[in-house]
Amino acid sequence: MKTTTLIAAAAATVLTLGGVSACGSSSSDSGSGSGGTVASGLIFGGPAEFKTRTDGIPGLQKTYGVKFAKYTVTDTGGPVTVGALKRGQIDAADLFTTDPSIEANDFVVLEDPKSNFKAQNIVPIINKTKATDGTKQVLNAIQAKLTTDGLGALLDKIQNDKEDPDAVAKEWLDDQDLDGAGTLAKGVSLTVGSANFPENVVLADIYADALSNQGATVTKKLNIGSREKYYPALKSGSLDLFPEYTGTILAYLDATSTVSTPDDVYAALAKALPANLVALDKADAEDSDAVVVTKQTAEKYDLKSIADLARTAK
Amino acid sequence: MIGSVLGWLLDPEHWRSTPFDTGIWAQLGAHVGFTLIALAIAVLLALPAGLVIGHTGRGSWLVSAANAVRALPTVGVLVLLVVVISPHFYGRTNAGFLIPTEIVLVVLAVPPILSNAYAGVQNVPPQVRDAAFGMGMTGPQVLGRVELPNALPLIFSGFRSAMLQVIATATIASYVTLGGLGRFIYDGLAQKDYPQMIGGAVLVAALALISDLLVALVQRYAVSRGVSRRFRTDTGPDSRTAVLVEEDVR
Amino acid sequence: MSVDVLPLDASSSPLAFWSYFLDHRSTDLGWLWDHTWLSVVPVVVGLVLALPLGWLARRHAWVYPPMMSVTGLLYTIPSIALFVLIPPLFGLSVLSPLQVPIALSVYSTSLLVRVVADGLAAVPSETVQAATALGYRPLARFTRVELPIAVPVITAGLRVAIVANVSIVAVAGTIGLDNLGRLFDQGFTLSVNEPYYPPIVLGIVLCVLLALVLDAVVLVVDRLLTPWRRAVAAR
């Protein structure tokens, strides 16, 4: 029986030890705020890359002098970030402006008057050999109709009503009178890709469906994952068309770029793309990073812009 | 590549924690913490159950049932539990993610410990058991003084198998935002910081190897020499083949 | 966990996974196929590599301890760590789709080397001697006498390897590789505001079914390869 007692004793010790070390990461947060800025009492949550990206944490500090108490790695504008913000595990988060959960949870998007975040207009990146006048015409007609609010509405259907992205895409094309059949893209065969988040998927569906209505032979390769995975495929020609965001693709191609207005970013992107890829027209629709807080936090500290986070806390 | 990974691992900055970056020491502590909690709970649940089932021979369906659980995809169960449990926790706590993770880890650790404890007792030669009863020992005495020591090699191999699975799976806790060494793998991937990603992987592998060695050492001293000698001439089961013991159970 | 978190009538109910499957059949079946070959191919590769290695370990006693140490060591490396370590070691790109089958082949091989070696060791020495006396050369003796007798032990190992693979492949879904693990990612993403169970439950159901089917296939192969066991049982 000695062994059993030993095992029980060891288990008890282990439980105590384990409990301490597992919770240690979360126990030492707030409290450092007294006397400092608003931000120095807040915990920020976002994707891991936001911590090191030039317009992420370093950018917020450089542009606004905002320094948070702590950074918690959550996910890229997904359920973990939204849930953590909603339930108070974090106080401020990096979310995307089109995200319907911002409205659904009464979150407040802080303004970015000094344009820390790069413009993120939606732009189709296409292989030069597939960019015929016809395909350009089809895609640019779509680009002209894409708005930030319209995009938010599409996302709402996917995320909250659980509609299928492809059905949502067809419905949108129909609403915009862009679903006409024709021969503009006849003879072109191309593979459309998308990253693995709903908005990017629905954009790829919109492009693909419109092109196939216009006679193109379209293969869809959606939900490919992260940019590290799909960009090489795009560059090497195994993908021909991809919905992108001007700011992020520019930052991926040229990490040192500091431009931030829509036109500057678009111009810089045109230069940064390799010779076999072209960017078609950018849409008005933007889906950019934003610093988001809950309504309670915004009211408590009277926050309207990111700059307010650098004020001295009362 | 190897040089830059070594560089990442040897940089003392990476071992310390700052408000923005949790260092290697802290993540190692969290990883070991998750593992110990899960193993402690699993041992408390599975070891007595396995011993009693093996001793009485009743309820062996429980062992088969626990083994069927192996077919469950761990990531899927983790995501499901997070979606169900995490909305119920508010404020500065990661309990909403910690509890699902621990449940998954315990579910992983129970089958090898349970089936090996059961098989260990079952495999005790009947002559030995009969001799113990013949000496006037009671049922619990036979279990505690004869069957348990004889079953120890198998119990240890079940424990080692469980421990390795738990250490490996604790990495995916990082997928649902908890700490642990997996953080470096997922963050390195997101930040395109491949030395960090590979460094994290090396650390997890090293933790698994060192833990296995430590338990092997404990096993050497805990298992009676009379028992272990027999197992040394045999091809005794190790952490890999421990899982195969279940096949004899049916 | 209270009952109200599981709305059983809505389309987000856990039980709605079947209609979810019907709505997304082509994608889901594609992932099921990816998942299947990712689980099966490594076991086949593992077996092909483990047979000669296991045979070597049996034939030359001095090979056995170092071979078991090396393969045992490989088996302790956590899967996600191995997925990530494979590309630099093999000179692949960081997110190459080959990393999963290679990593799983490493596990399957290291598990099966031990199983094959021990399975061969369990062949009664009288049987081996009898075969030798009947004039079998070593290779023929191995393939026609020792190996068939070791089949039950080897297939037991194959079952463990294949069921484990189904679960490990899903882990690769969390680093963006295509398989049923993507359903978990998807369900998680759609659970932003309230829980959305169908893809998650569908993923679990398909993984369990796949594991059961593959396990059954190995069992059937085992029965076909060992007719004498049925003969003995029938007597």
From TrEMBL, chain A:
Q: What does UniProt give as the signal peptide span?
A: 1-22
GO CC annotation: what is one?
Answer: ATP-binding cassette (ABC) transporter complex
Q: Which domain of life is it from?
A: Bacteria
Domain annotation ABC-type glycine betaine transport system substrate-binding: ranges: 44-174, 189-314
Q: Which GO terms describe its molecular function?
A: transmembrane transporter activity
The keyword Signal appears for this protein: yes
Record has RNA-binding as a keyword:
no
Extract the SUPFAM superfamilies matched here.
Periplasmic binding protein-like II
InterPro entries cross-referenced by the UniProt entry: ABC_Gly_betaine_transp_sub-bd (IPR007210)
Q: Which UniProt keywords apply?
A: Signal
User: By what name is this protein known?
Assistant: ABC-type glycine betaine transport system substrate-binding domain-containing protein
Q: Which organism is this entry from? A: Marmoricola endophyticus
- Record lineage: Bacteria, Bacillati, Actinomycetota, Actinomycetes, Propionibacteriales
TrEMBL record, chain B:
Membrane listed as a keyword: yes
Q: How does the record classify its membrane topology?
A: Multi-pass membrane protein
Q: Which InterPro entries match?
A: ABC_transp_perm/SBD (IPR051204), MetI-like (IPR000515), MetI-like_sf (IPR035906)
Alphabetically ordered keywords of this record: Membrane, Transmembrane, Transmembrane helix, Transport
Gene Ontology cellular-component annotations: plasma membrane
Give the residue spans that cross the bilayer: 24-47, 68-91, 97-119, 162-186, 198-223
Q: Which top-rank group of organisms is this from?
A: Bacteria
Using the record's annotation, list all stretches that form the ABC transmembrane type-1 domain: 28-215
Tagged with keyword Transport: yes
Quick one: where is this thing mainly located? membrane
Q: What GO biological process terms does the UniProt entry carry, in alphabetical order?
A: glycine betaine transport; transmembrane transport
| Cell compartments where the protein resides | Cell membrane; Membrane
Return the PANTHER family for the record: GLYCINE BETAINE/L-PROLINE TRANSPORT SYSTEM PERMEASE PROTEIN PROW, POSSIBLE OSMOPROTECTANT (GLYCINE BETAINE_CARNITINE_CHOLINE_L-PROLINE) TRANSPORT INTEGRAL MEMBRANE PROTEIN ABC TRANSPORTER PROZ
What does the sequence similarity comment in the record state about its family? Belongs to the binding-protein-dependent transport system permease family.
**What name does UniProt use for this protein?**
Glycine/betaine ABC transporter permease
Automatic annotation (TrEMBL), chain C:
- One Gene Ontology term, aspect cellular component: plasma membrane
Q: Where in or outside the cell is it found? A: Cell membrane; Membrane
Principal location class: membrane
Transmembrane segment boundaries? 36-56, 68-86, 196-221
Q: Which UniProt keywords apply?
A: Membrane, Transmembrane, Transmembrane helix, Transport
GO BP annotation list = glycine betaine transport; transmembrane transport
Q: Which residue range or ranges hold the ABC transmembrane type-1 domain?
A: 32-218
The UniProt entry, under InterPro entries, shows:
ABC_transp_perm/SBD (IPR051204), MetI-like (IPR000515), MetI-like_sf (IPR035906)
**Keyword Protein transport carried by entry:** no
Q: How does it sit in the membrane?
A: Multi-pass membrane protein
Return the similarity comment. Belongs to the binding-protein-dependent transport system permease family.
Q: Which PANTHER family does the UniProt record give?
A: GLYCINE BETAINE/L-PROLINE TRANSPORT SYSTEM PERMEASE PROTEIN PROW, OSMOPROTECTANT IMPORT PERMEASE PROTEIN OSMW
Q: What is this protein called?
A: Glycine/betaine ABC transporter permease
